[in-house]
Amino acid sequence: MRPLERHRDAGAYALGVLDAADAFRFEDHLVECGTCRARVADLDLPARALRAHGRSVPHVLDPAAPPTARLLGRLLDTAGHDRRQRRLVRLRRGLGAVAAAVALAAGSAVAVRDAGGGPQPLRAAAHDDRTRVAAVLTARERAWGTEVGLRVRDEGPARVCELVAVGTDGSRDTVTTWRGPGREMETGGGTGLRPGRIERFEVRAAGGGRLLTLRPR
């Protein structure tokens, strides 16, 4: 995948319609590209609205059917009045791609259910210029709780870090630990908390402060 194509995949990634291989490659790119992280963050609310719509429609869909004007209006309204002016130009530019992806997103959800593969994993990406940490996280529901995958780049000082799942009730569970810094790495782990009970994940310096917050959607 060429760099320009990676930038163009930000919308598809936010909607969860990339296949597993392309999503994996885009997440590698996302760790390094602040522009794409900003685009994914900007599309978070519209993407959630589309996923909610996909869950509410019948399972038998015509993938070629265009989205209704009512759906597109609801998509813009979801962005919120206080942020609308700042984001309106970008949303208009990307509206055509988002509209074309509505049927694909709903159709993909049906295909996944029919194949018995279960729901798509939740994803989050974030970076912090102050702590010099960037990460991409995936969280997938399992019978025992939540399986977590993490790619992280730590350019800070040498330190032992940990990923902590924070529950909606304030409970905390350490998912995995590793030693930085200065390189990209992959790690993973699990927590007994189910995705619906997880409010956020925190990357923390062991025995120290929070370095990064990730909120999967």
TrEMBL record:
Keywords: Membrane, Transcription, Transcription regulation, Transmembrane, Transmembrane helix. The keyword Transcription applies. The chain crosses the membrane at residues 94-112. InterPro entries: Anti_sigma_zinc_sf, Znf_put. Residues 11-37 form the Putative zinc-finger domain. This is Putative zinc-finger domain-containing protein.
